[in-house]
Each structure stands twice: as structure tokens, then as C-alpha cells.
């Protein structure tokens, strides 16, 4: 058994950390407060190679392994959840489905722009009436000659309504299966297609510097070449995409937990009460010890799940476990971190409150904690 | 144009430093290493010249133990074409470059069979802060040196530099070949792109020992050093700040001026 990262993985961690500290940390608080998505920062992240990390060089991807990708998301999340969200959604949800299920022509057309970070892509899955219950979705696509006509709406779609957005992948009902359940198919919709509208969503509690959209499809007509994979593949594609997406959301929990812990440890060492650093008091020290231990556990679980994926072995159970554990861990750590900061922890100036807020999405997005427990319990034979 | 960059790997400025038991060196057991920040400016400037001119080659020259390989990979990922590493470590002991004089002698010897028009070095290394190596190298190679450069323009035959001097700047030029040292502000070093990090894996490092560049190890290490460290200690911890009491800002200012004169003796 070997727990060492490769030299390249170690370098990626170091370089992303340096980038996040220099380029993201100084502006993260302000972007959060103004609820502002920064195209400039997103392009910079693209320049160092944070998009298309697991995509082959043939499509201008970075040609790296899955653990490197997860490490990069982790290191960005250690500084800021919003930017990590842009990266995680950009790779796992925007680029992923096009790369894994797209035709050669579709890949050639879209991936180079997405992998260089010039453009972003959304993945339209969740609907106002269909969250955990994917069967509740209402968006439909109907064949009309050589075209498909899409009607419906999507909600909470990351990277789908900013000035860098090139288009979205949308899942729609295209018929009924033999077993009576709806048949799902994914389609590519470019941003300027008539009838398609993407509206940014505001007043978010968390990920305030990430772009979130509502999508409306009003008789949106796309040629049949815009189908992703084959008719009826949509459900399978969605499951595969979410398995990978879980790992990236999990790594945001892992990185966020590490970031909140970093802040808490530093503050505890600097802050003096009763004549000594509060880190010397067991009430504080034990909290930090628990955080350090759990972060170590989380990292091992997360990297094991990524390793399984890299080895093309089944990883669904481990991905669900890693997502659930890392997300909830960040909640515990951010809670301790705010508590250790005392009154200052409630103030924006000290950054931990941002970690505290950003964490909550992780219990909900890409499969709620409850759904992860369902996935795990099915895998263990309940 | 052939450009040589001199690079030193130093302890990461963000990592804590401990003094070794010998009391004449730092404990490098758990040290995190990084490229000397001023050498990052040199690397960036060399790459910028190469990109502007085309048809140029950037060669990195570095002296140090095994772990310098890590810094070389970063330099490769930034875009350096070739790297020469004079490895002066045997059995965990550094037997070569131990002070500015031995370091400069090794670099000068290594450069004997490397063609160059321009050598770029950081103005100083942030670990021992001697400021000496680039000047000593220029001296040994009989090259003009322009230090603390914040801007340069290079033709095929000469280099024009803006140099920071006390209280201002000077414009200085030299005929090539020449050596310049970089000052903060000259550029913003790039981040290595991930694809370049993966490609750097395949690049070879030209690793040599002292004998390979015609030097006798007997004359290096502690035998060759002209500067010997006798002991090391941390700077004293900063004392408590002082809050000046007074009934009005004017009174407080008066007390402050008095303290700066009498107590701190700075005005």
C-alpha cells in the first residue's frame, strides 16, 4: 500500500495553493459580499489549467488523473467555496458529460473552448418540481422532422447564465419506456438558440460568487445532431455524471473543512485570554484535535474513492460515502471554527463565517445527505 | 539568443524555520523548499525575452543537493528549455557550495561550456541574503553586471536597463554578453500550467558533479569557503506596542515625536 502522491500531484497541490492564496484569497470576501461572479478570475483559473483537468490533450484538456483534479478542487475550496464551485461544476457537470458521452464532432466543437477556460457550460437537471425525485421532471423534447423541440424549465444550474456561458446540456423526457417509466435523453442547447433563456439567480446564502441560473425552454428547436449519445441514454448519463460530481462536491467539503480548520488553528494560537493562547485550553485544543483527525479520515476516504475511479473499478458506494462524510465534516469543522473565533467569528472580516455559510450547500447539492444514505444503504444490502 | 538563468532553491518563506543542533545551519529535516522568489522574476524575464524574440533558448543553471530537482521541475513547467544541475550532495552532506565564493566558482565553471548572451539572476537569495553570488559570477567570467533591474530591453548586441538605485532609478546599458540581476517589480512570474507540469515529467535534467565540470572537491565545501558561519540565532521577538495616552490628538502627537527622538532615536 502506498499513500504517497505522485510528484505531479504534489506539484499541482502546491501550485494551486499558491494561486488560490495569491489570486483568490484577497478578493473572495468582496466577491461574496457583492454576490459577484468574476469572469476575470475564472479566465485566470482557466489559464493555469483548472478546466478540463481529466480531459485528454486531444481536446485541449490537461490530461491528468482524477486525483489531481480532486486535489485542485480541494485546494481552491480551502480558500473559497464559490470559486471551487465554478471549477467543480465546470469540470464535472459542464465538461464531463460532453467528454464522456458526446460525439467526436460535439467534442471537437465545444471542449477546446471549455478546457481553456474561455467559456463555461451548464448541466440542466434539477427542476422546480424535481429535486431528489428525478421522476418528477416535466421538461420534454418532442421530435419534429430532423429537429427536437424542447419545452420546460430547470433550476439551480451552475455556470449557466454568465457572460462566459456557451450553452447547456439539458435532460428532457423523450417518451415512455417499456416499463411505463419516462424515457430521458440529453440535448445540447447553445446559449443563443431562440426560445432559450438563462436567468441568473440572486439572494443566495452561499456560493455567492458562483453563477447560478434558472433555465427556460419555450419551443426551443435543436437539430437532431444536438442529441448527447442516443435516445434514452439520459438517465444513465445523469447517474454517471452525478457519481463523478459527488467526488468533486466531496472534495469541496474536504478543502472547506481544511480551510476552516486552518483559520481556527491560527486564530487559537494568536488569541490570548486569561494570559495565554486559547489553543492551550483543552476545550479549544480538543476541538482542533478532533478536526485534524476527522480531516485526515476524510482525505483518506476521498482519495480512495478517486483511486477506485481512476482504476475503473466500481466506486459508487465510496463516492457516496466520501461526499456525505466530507460535506458533513465541513459543517462540524466550520461550526467549531466559528465557535473558536468567538464574537469575531460572526464578522465577515474573519472569513470563517463564509465557510460556515458555504458549507450548507454541500448537504443538499448533487444528492442530499439523505440521498447519499439511501445509496450507501442499498449498497450494503439494507 | 541564449539566456542562462541562475536559480537557487531556498526554504519556503511561508514555512517555519528551525536552527539545527550544530547551531551553524538551519534544520532541513522537514523543510519545505521553493524557488528563490527573485529567481522566479529571472525565470519569467528570460521566458518573456524568449517569447518576444523567438529563436531563443533558456537554460537554467543551479547548484545544490538532491532536493533541488523539485525546483527544476517547476522551472521546466514554467517553460525553461534545459536545466543543468550541479549536484553537490553525497550521503546527505553538501560538499560543494557552502558560501557565496564556492557557489560562484561552481557556477562559473559550469558555464564554461554553455553558450550564453545574457545571464539573469535574482538580486539576492532570501535564505542567506548575501547579495554576492551574481556579482562574483560576473567577475569570474569577466562580464559587465547591471544589478537591481526593474525593466530591460535587449537587442542582439546590447541590453538597456532601468535599475533601481537609492531614491530613484538609473538607466544603464551594457554590451552583451552581460549579467543582470532582477528586482521586484520587473514582472509577475507566471503560474506553471498543469499541462506543462505533466510535460515537465518527461524532460531530462543534465546532472553533473564537481569533477564533471573540472573542479577538485578538495577545494570546495568547508575547505574552500571564505565565509564561515560561527553561530545562528533568531532575531529577538518584537516587544509589546505602546499606546500613547493624551487628552488630545495634538498632545499625543507631541508625546510621539518626543518618544521617537528620545527613546527610539529615529528622528
UniProtKB/TrEMBL annotation, chain A:
<dbReference type="InterPro" id="IPR037069">
    <property type="entry name" value="AcylCoA_DH/ox_N_sf"/>
</dbReference>
<comment type="similarity">
    <text>Belongs to the acyl-CoA dehydrogenase family.</text>
</comment>
<feature type="domain" description="Acyl-CoA dehydrogenase/oxidase C-terminal">
    <location>
        <begin position="232"/>
        <end position="380"/>
    </location>
</feature>
<dbReference type="InterPro" id="IPR006091">
    <property type="entry name" value="Acyl-CoA_Oxase/DH_mid-dom"/>
</dbReference>
<feature type="domain" description="Acyl-CoA dehydrogenase/oxidase N-terminal">
    <location>
        <begin position="6"/>
        <end position="118"/>
    </location>
</feature>
<dbReference type="InterPro" id="IPR006089">
    <property type="entry name" value="Acyl-CoA_DH_CS"/>
</dbReference>
<feature type="domain" description="Acyl-CoA oxidase/dehydrogenase middle">
    <location>
        <begin position="123"/>
        <end position="220"/>
    </location>
</feature>
<dbReference type="Pfam" id="PF00441">
    <property type="entry name" value="Acyl-CoA_dh_1"/>
</dbReference>
<dbReference type="InterPro" id="IPR013786">
    <property type="entry name" value="AcylCoA_DH/ox_N"/>
</dbReference>
<dbReference type="InterPro" id="IPR046373">
    <property type="entry name" value="Acyl-CoA_Oxase/DH_mid-dom_sf"/>
</dbReference>
<dbReference type="Pfam" id="PF02771">
    <property type="entry name" value="Acyl-CoA_dh_N"/>
</dbReference>
<keyword id="KW-0560">Oxidoreductase</keyword>
<protein>
    <recommendedName>
        <fullName>Cyclohexane-1-carbonyl-CoA dehydrogenase</fullName>
        <ecNumber>1.3.8.11</ecNumber>
    </recommendedName>
</protein>
<dbReference type="GO" id="GO:0050660">
    <property type="term" value="F:flavin adenine dinucleotide binding"/>
</dbReference>
<dbReference type="InterPro" id="IPR009100">
    <property type="entry name" value="AcylCoA_DH/oxidase_NM_dom_sf"/>
</dbReference>
<dbReference type="GO" id="GO:0003995">
    <property type="term" value="F:acyl-CoA dehydrogenase activity"/>
</dbReference>
<dbReference type="InterPro" id="IPR009075">
    <property type="entry name" value="AcylCo_DH/oxidase_C"/>
</dbReference>
<comment type="subunit">
    <text>Homotetramer.</text>
</comment>
<keyword id="KW-0274">FAD</keyword>
<dbReference type="Pfam" id="PF02770">
    <property type="entry name" value="Acyl-CoA_dh_M"/>
</dbReference>
<keyword id="KW-0285">Flavoprotein</keyword>
<dbReference type="InterPro" id="IPR036250">
    <property type="entry name" value="AcylCo_DH-like_C"/>
</dbReference>
Automatic annotation (TrEMBL), chain B:
<keyword id="KW-0249">Electron transport</keyword>
<dbReference type="InterPro" id="IPR012255">
    <property type="entry name" value="ETF_b"/>
</dbReference>
<dbReference type="GO" id="GO:0005829">
    <property type="term" value="C:cytosol"/>
</dbReference>
<feature type="domain" description="Electron transfer flavoprotein alpha/beta-subunit N-terminal">
    <location>
        <begin position="23"/>
        <end position="217"/>
    </location>
</feature>
<keyword id="KW-0813">Transport</keyword>
<dbReference type="GO" id="GO:0009055">
    <property type="term" value="F:electron transfer activity"/>
</dbReference>
<comment type="similarity">
    <text>Belongs to the ETF beta-subunit/FixA family.</text>
</comment>
<protein>
    <recommendedName>
        <fullName>Electron transfer flavoprotein subunit beta</fullName>
    </recommendedName>
</protein>
<dbReference type="InterPro" id="IPR033948">
    <property type="entry name" value="ETF_beta_N"/>
</dbReference>
<dbReference type="InterPro" id="IPR014729">
    <property type="entry name" value="Rossmann-like_a/b/a_fold"/>
</dbReference>
<dbReference type="InterPro" id="IPR014730">
    <property type="entry name" value="ETF_a/b_N"/>
</dbReference>
<dbReference type="Pfam" id="PF01012">
    <property type="entry name" value="ETF"/>
</dbReference>
Amino acid at each position: 500500500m502506498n499513500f504517497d502522491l505522485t510528484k505531479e500531484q504534489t506539484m499541482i497541490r502546491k501550485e494551486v495553493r499558491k494561486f488560490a492564496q495569491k489570486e483568490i484569497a484577497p478578493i473572495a470576501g468582496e466577491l461574496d459580499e457583492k454576490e459577484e461572479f468574476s469572469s476575470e478570475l475564472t479566465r485566470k483559473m482557466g489559464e493555469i489549467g483548472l478546466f478540463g483537468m481529466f480531459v485528454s490533450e486531444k481536446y485541449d484538456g490537461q490530461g491528468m488523473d482524477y486525483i489531481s483534479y480532486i486535489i485542485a478542487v480541494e485546494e481552491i475550496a480551502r480558500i473559497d467555496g464559490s470559486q471551487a464551485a465554478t471549477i467543480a461544476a465546470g469540470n464535472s457537470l459542464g465538461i464531463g458529460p460532453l467528454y464522456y458521452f458526446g460525439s467526436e464532432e460535439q467534442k471537437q466543437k465545444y471542449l477546446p473552448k471549455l478546457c481553456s477556460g474561455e467559456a463555461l457550460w451548464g448541466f440542466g437537471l434539477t427542476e422546480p418540481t424535481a429535486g431528489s425525485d428525478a421522476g418528477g421532471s416535466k421538461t420534454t423534447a418532442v421530435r419534429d422532422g430532423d429537429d427536437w423541440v424542447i419545452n420546460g424549465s430547470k433550476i439551480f444550474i451552475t455556470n449557466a447564465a454568465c457572460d462566459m456561458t456557451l450553452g447547456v446540456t439539458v435532460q428532457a423526457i423523450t417518451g415512455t419506456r417499456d416499463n411505463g417509466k419516462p424515457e430521458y435523453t440529453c440535448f445540447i442547447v447553445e446559449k443563443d438558440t431562440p426560445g432559450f433563456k438563462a436567468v441568473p439567480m440572486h439572494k443566495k446564502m452561499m456560493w455567492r460568487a458562483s453563477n447560478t441560473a434558472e433555465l427556460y425552454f419555450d419551443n426551443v428547436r435543436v437539430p437532431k445532431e444536438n442529441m448527447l449519445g442516443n435516445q434514452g441514454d439520459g438517465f444513465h448519463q445523469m447517474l454517471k455524471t452525478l457519481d463523478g460530481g459527488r467526488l468533486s462536491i466531496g472534495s469541496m467539503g474536504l478543502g472547506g473543512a481544511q480551510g476552516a480548520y486552518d483559520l481556527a488553528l491560527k486564530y487559537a494560537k494568536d488569541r490570548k485570554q486569561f494570559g495565554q493562547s486559547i489553543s492551550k485550553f483543552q476545550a479549544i485544543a480538543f476541538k482542533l484535535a478532533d478536526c485534524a483527525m476527522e480531516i485526515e479520515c476524510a482525505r483518506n476516504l476521498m482519495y480512495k474513492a478517486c483511486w477506485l475511479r481512476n482504476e475503473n473499478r466500481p466506486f459508487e458506494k465510496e463516492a457516496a460515502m466520501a461526499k456525505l462524510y466530507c460535506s458533513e465534516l465541513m459543517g462540524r469543522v466550520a461550526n467549531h471554527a466559528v465557535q473558536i473565533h468567538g464574537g469575531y467569528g460572526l464578522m465577515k472580516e474573519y472569513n470563517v463565517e463564509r465557510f460556515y455559510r458555504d458549507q450548507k450547500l454541500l448537504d443538499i447539492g448533487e444528492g442530499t445527505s439523505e440521498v447519499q444514505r439511501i445509496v450507501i444503504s442499498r449498497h450494503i444490502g439494507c | 539568443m541564449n539566456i542562462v538563468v541562475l536559480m537557487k532553491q531556498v526554504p519556503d518563506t511561508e514555512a517555519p524555520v528551525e536552527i539545527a543542533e550544530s547551531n551553524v545551519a538551519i534544520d532541513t529535516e522537514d523543510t519545505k523548499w521553493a524557488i528563490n522568489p527573485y529567481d522566479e522574476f529571472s525565470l519569467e524575464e528570460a521566458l518573456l525575452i524568449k517569447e518576444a524574440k523567438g529563436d531563443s533558448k533558456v537554460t537554467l543553471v543551479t547548484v545544490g543537493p538532491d532536493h533541488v530537482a523539485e525546483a527544476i521541475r517547476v522551472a521546466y513547467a514554467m517553460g525553461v528549455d534545459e536545466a543543468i544541475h550541479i549536484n553537490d550532495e553525497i550521503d546527505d552532506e553538501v560538499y560543494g557550495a557552502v558560501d557565496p565564493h564556492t557557489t560562484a566558482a561552481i557556477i562559473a565553471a559550469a558555464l564554461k561550456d554553455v553558450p550564453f548572451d545574457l545571464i539573469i539572476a535574482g538580486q539576492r537569495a532570501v535564505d542567506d541574503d548575501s547579495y554576492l553570488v551574481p556579482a562574483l559570477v560576473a567577475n569570474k567570467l569577466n562580464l559587465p553586471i547591471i544589478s537591481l533591474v526593474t525593466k530591460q530591453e535587449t537587442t542582439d548586441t546590447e541590453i538597456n536597463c532601468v535599475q533601481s538605485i537609492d531614491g530613484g532609478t538609473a538607466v544603464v546599458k551594457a554590451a552583451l554578453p552581460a549579467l543582470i540581476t532582477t528586482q521586484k517589480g520587473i514582472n509577475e512570474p507566471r503560474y506553471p500550467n498543469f499541462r506543462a507540469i505533466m510535460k515537465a515529467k518527461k524532460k531530462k535534467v543534465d546532472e553533473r558533479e564537481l569533477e564533471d565540470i573540472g573542479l577538485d572537491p578538495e577545494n570546495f565545501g568547508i575547505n574552500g569557503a571564505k565565509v564561515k558561519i560561527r553561530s545562528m540565532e533568531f532575531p529577538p521577538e518584537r516587544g509589546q506596542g505602546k499606546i500613547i495616552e493624551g487628552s488630545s490628538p495634538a498632545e499625543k502627537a507631541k508625546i510621539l515625536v518626543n518618544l521617537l527622538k528620545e527613546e527610539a532615536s529615529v528622528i
